[in-house]
Amino acid sequence: MKRTFLIFVLFAPLSWSAHAHEHMNHTTTLEHNGHSHDHHYNQLVIEKNAEVDSERFIKFIENLTGSQIAVVNVEGMVCDFCARGIEKTFLKDINVKRIDVDLNQGKVLIAYTSEAEIDFNDIKQKILSNGQNATGMQIIKL
Amino acid sequence: MGIRLLIILFFFLVSNSGETRPISYSGGSTAMTFSDNMKNSIYYHFSPSHKYSLGIEAIEDKFFGSNYSYFRFTYLLDRKNTQNSQRNLYFQSGVSSKGFDNFFYGIHGDWETRRLFFGFSLKQVENEKKDYYDQSYQLGFAPYLGNYGDLHTWIMLKTKRNSLISEWSTYPVLKFFKGNVLMEFGYNDKTEWDLHLMYRF
Predict the structure, then answer these.
(1) What's the CATH code of the domain at B11?
(2) Does A4 touch chain B (CB under 8 A)?
(3) Distance from B40 to chain A by nearest Cα, in Å?
(4) pLDDT per residue over B75-120, tens digit each?
(5) Which among B175, B178, B184, B182 has a CA at the least distance from the CA of B199?
(6) ipTM above 0.85, yes or no
(7) Which residues in B lie closer than 8 A to residue A86 (C-beta atoms)?
(8) Considering its fold, how many domains does chain B have in total?
(9) Whole domain around residue B112: which residue ranges?
(10) With an 8 Å Cβ cutoff, is A133 touching chain B?
């Protein structure tokens, strides 16, 4: 049976702690509208519903060392056929290495290159262009 | 299924008004064929944005025995996304290659979760021979929940009525989709086959 869990609990502290050494006094959290208070520290972004399927996530990150994974919560993503555009749209971005759609959890996993600056507003716009709404995002650095 | 077989199917299933997702993602195209007791058609549409699509539909009208095309415009009037559902309401319209006196307009809506589906289409068709009104309703459920990339299956019940025939026709429909391909089959002993094939790219 597939378990769901808060990926933040398992993965986020690793990247957070690594970053915290460099920027001990800076905490960066995007607001719900995706606006970053400090673009120098594109760190963890926690919004509601950050659960992902653990097995799916582990499979997804295979051979993606050094990447950043955006876990995006998406509303209205109820059908495989209707989510196809999400994959096509994101894969046009040269900074995107891999994408996965988790229909069960209503999540899109996007693997970005390590140097990419991940912009939640851009992600929201891309999701909207496919007809759904991105309501939250978490970034995990591998 | 091989690409060759798919292409052959695509051009020979010549179709009805496949209204499943009448607007694609921004920059996306959809090609479909549809066939039922009233018409065979091939329809291509392009979506400049997720709010509307423009397309052309080539029709073999079985009832009036004529061939023509529609230049179609579909607009998303309303959409409601939740974590587990999506509801859509569209305005649909088309102007015939026969002239501006031949056109149709109507609304099309659906509500869908991963498990349940309800859709409807109401359409008024004006032409030089006889105007008519077309309506259909569709209820469905998914017997299993597939993952992204799996073969997805829907079991549906469709009922439709055309004012030219003035009789309700109700029948089961099976819908399958995998990747960018969608297929739908319905059968009624009065109206015979509904066939619908769609490819999104």
Answers:
(1) 2.40.160.40
(2) no
(3) 24
(4) 999 999 999 999 999 999 999 999 888 999 999 999 999 999 999 9
(5) B182
(6) no
(7) 25
(8) 1
(9) 3-200
(10) yes
